[in-house]
Amino acid sequence: MLELRHVSKSFGNKQVLQEISLHVANGEFVSVIGPSGSGKSTMFSLIGGLLEPDAGEIYLSGENITNKRGFISYMPQQASLFPWRTIIENVLVGQELQGKKDYERAEAMLERAGLGDVIHAYPHELSGGMKQRVAFIRALLSPQSLMLLDEPFSALDEFTRTDMQKWLLSIWEDDEQSILFITHNIDEALFLSDKIIILSVNPAEIKEVIEVPFKRPRDEELLLSEEFLQWKRKIMDVIQY
Amino acid sequence: MNTSVLKKIWRPFLAILLFIGLWEVATRLFSIEEWLLPAPSDIVMEARSVIPTFLPHLQSTVTLSVSGFLIGTTVGLGVATILHLMPRVRETFFPFIIISQNMPIIVLAPLLVIWFGFNALPKLIIITLACFFPIAVSALGGFTQTNRELVHYMKMMGANKAQLFWKLELPHAIPSIFSGLKIAGTYSVMAAVVSEWLGAQKGIGVFMTLAASSYRTSRVFVAIIVAMIISLAFYGLILLLEKFFIRWQQKGENN
């Protein structure tokens, strides 16, 4: 589905990304993990078409989308909802930009996501976790088949975060969307993904790609299992090495 | 709700009453001539007798200031939009706009009469000039202060320039546009009265000059008070519109 081929990017003299090649298959959940400042957000801007790589190409379903916009759907770190729009109007933004609005589907999706009571509320009436849910639904409802999620839960407290991860899986597992997910939280990456890409810093290179063997659907028990902890240790070793 | 409004309002209301009372007593105590400073009671009497003949003047001024205000708003928003969407144009022309505001309108007025005559056009130009600046500046400020995260989201989602403007920047700027509108609304009445001094058949400005030149000071005060009331009414109307347009913000924090 998404393919990066030898993508490099530098700002001035500072090389940020070096020879990044990665692959996200149809319906796959891929996490990119690495320390802050490892150029993860730059990578997203490249895939989103806001920046042009110095070298390399980006393909989506076989089509070259290097430096082209509008091919991916996006969920930022902050919920970034429009304060003057109600929740239902907010989740329809992505569709509006591409032309067609499907009000019924949005309504049904919000119901299913447990947001049925706040369809006509304004964002300021919602808690931080609820706003993130809305932002995720907005990304999911956008017509593009690949979602980029940029550390979406990093601003939430630990309790809300675990809830959100379970909730995200429950919504996403019914769907066919592919996800590329940025995080610096190892637990989060392991719990959610099919594949974890570990980046190094200065410049960011791909250190290792780890296939996560856990079966779906996953639940909270997994977080405390021996197997989970072993994988976590393995990833930490790779990062520290 | 009514009691809370009363609680808020009684102090300033009392202060105004006290002020008017003092004024009344002072004019009587020091027996000040009516042509110099009429007592409030004189002004009320004058208002009663003069209101029927005053109405056409009032109507003319209101029409003038409303049309000037609407033109000024349109021009102001248009200019702000153009300057915002074309940064080059903004760099080139923004200094001109600032300079144009430092030119006192009253000085410009006779020139406009020379160029355009005594009809409505120079008056509308004066009001437009007075209104357009606060609106243009506040709108431009609103556009450029658009939340960066929302802009980033829109760009990542592939929004083009027009979508970015209509769906994000314009709605985002509405609160600041309204603060410009409130200033422009009060300017428009003042500018209308000033423009009528230049020469007109009707209007509060005309009424005022006639009254002043014949030392009918009570009438001048009637005109001033009516102008104030119109100005306040404009302000109130814009406030209502604002409440309607940004009702999403009423209860919560400003995001």
Tally the helices of chain A: what do you get?
8
Tell how many strands the DSSP assignment of chain A holds: 10
Give the ordered list of helices and strands of chain B.
HHHHHHHHH
CATH architecture of the largest domain in chain A: 3-Layer(aba) Sandwich
First-to-last CA distance of chain B: 27 Å
Keywords (chain B): Cell membrane, Membrane, Transmembrane, Transmembrane helix, Transport
InterPro entries (chain B): MetI-like (IPR000515)
Domain ABC transmembrane type-1 (chain B): 58-241
Pfam families (chain B): BPD_transp_1 (PF00528)
Care to describe what's here?
The complex is a heterodimer of chains A (241) and B (255). Chain A is an alpha/beta fold and 241 residues long. Chain A has eight helices and ten strands. Chain A has two domains: 1-72 and 145-160 and 175-241, 3-Layer(aba) Sandwich (Rossmann fold), CATH 3.40.50.300; 81-143. Helix content of chain A is 34%, strand content 24%. In chain A, strand 9 (195-199) and strand 10 form a beta hairpin. The longest helix of chain A has 15 residues, at 158-172. The model of chain A has no long low-confidence stretch (mean pLDDT 90). Chain B has two domains: 1-31; 39-249, MetI-like fold. Chain B has nine helices and no strands. Chain B has helices spanning 2-29, 40-85, 87-101, 105-116, 120-144, 148-156, 161-197, 204-213, 217-245. The model of chain B has no long low-confidence stretch (mean pLDDT 90). Chains A and B meet through helix 1 and helix 3 of A and helix 6 and helix 7 of B.
